[in-house]
Structure prediction request, 501 residues.
Amino acid sequence: MEKIFIFDTTLRDGEQSPGASMEIRQKVEIAKQLAKLGVDVIEAGFPMTSEGDFEAVRSIAREVNGPIICGLARAVSSDIERAWEALKDAARPRIHTFISTSDIQIKHQLKKTQEEVIQIAKDMVSKAKEYTADVEFSPMDATRTDPEFLYKILETVIEVGATTLNIPDTVGYAIPEEFGRLIANIKKNVRGIDTVVISVHCHNDLGLSTANSLAAVANGCRQVECTINGIGERAGNAALEEVVMAINTRKDLFGITCGIDTTQIYKISRLVSRATGMIVQPNKAIVGVNAFAHESGIHQDGMLKEKTTFEIMTPESIGLKESRLVLGKLSGRHAFKSRLQEMGYELNDEELNRAFVIFKKMADKKREITDSDLEAIVSDELQTIKETYQLEKVQIICGTPGITPVATVSLKNQKGEIIENTASGDGPIDAIGKAIETIINIPLRLVDFSVQAVDGGKDAAGEVNIHLESGKRLFSGRGTDTDIVVASAKAFVHAANKMMG
Ligand code: KIV
Ligand code: ZN
Prediction:
């Protein structure tokens, strides 16, 4: 069977989701998991945009083996130089350069002519080729680009050595049949197209990103760009798990294969959700908590008789297993470490010690520690945010209408001083936010708040995810505890520390 390449851009386009910024250490961890998942290409970042992005791409280029490591660059000399600087230690580096090609973007954003755009694309692909043989080119807003101009610019970059031509539906405008036709027409009309890989990159503004990607596959594209959980700019990108499971489940139709180990999908979905603070909607295809839950009596009856009556893929195929008791308060460090290793986490001694302390505290309060609890502990441990403040104590008073919610919060600063404040609010969470705001002396605006049980059961740990706004930026915060008030206060302190960092 012919193979389709899976290009993951969670760490680049995915990180462009508002509030989804990740720490370098988290990005490296995700990149290692992407390598285990078996993706062909990891787009690790956009090195020119910030020092943090540059460092993340460089660390991933140095530490992650297997996939091609790609860095994004505008079709601008300094971007390409910077991308190469970050990528040069990778075993298999790729530079991905792009320029707008639709009339609307050329005119209003670039303020150039089509001829100038072609010349820039030609020069910048040639420049990237001086560094690496593997160069990808994207005509941005391809689906709103004049097809004749699109063919011409693609032909030009092939002539100067582009090896992958990516066709982005940048604004999520295309409809599957139309997008499939565009790919077929590119194959028919672009000289030299058979010597390169055609790729697609679809955004989800109309909820069609997976459908469009699959229509492109059916018409001969051989690389799909996607993100874990479909995160990305605006409504996001095509979700890797959806594209991959569609191709696998409907092999009969597509007749192609991809090198993904689908049993790693659930784990990486959770990891990305925790790292970005972006919760996966319950009915999300493949990875939502309801994706394999059967409620209707007729469905349950069918499932008990023969699973294939109502299940087109098994939960095991994405690495979901029944939540099971793995560890408890009597478990030792050895069992703790080996379970983490089975789950794919390699912590150094210091991280392991810190994680073990949290585990023991949790195990004191909670009878069963499940894999999801362990994931929560480890992802807390992998956060390398400078802890300007630590939560020492939180207490709230609230109740039926008429009782004003009041929170008392104590934080420890880096000098070891304890600062305490009491504030009232519209509700207990608002009161906690106000008490913390006064201590750290930065205005905090809570823009969203959610709480989820990390696992079922009455002693489940609660995971609180919030976003705080400061100026035009959003900061995610997460806290886990068996007490959701404490988890909420931890989430506030976590986001506030990011803000200060
Ligand atoms: O959506 C888009 O056009 C992009 C390009 C940089 C490929 O993300
Ligand atoms: Zn994009």
Observations:
- The radius of gyration is 24 Å.
- The longest helix spans residues 114-131.
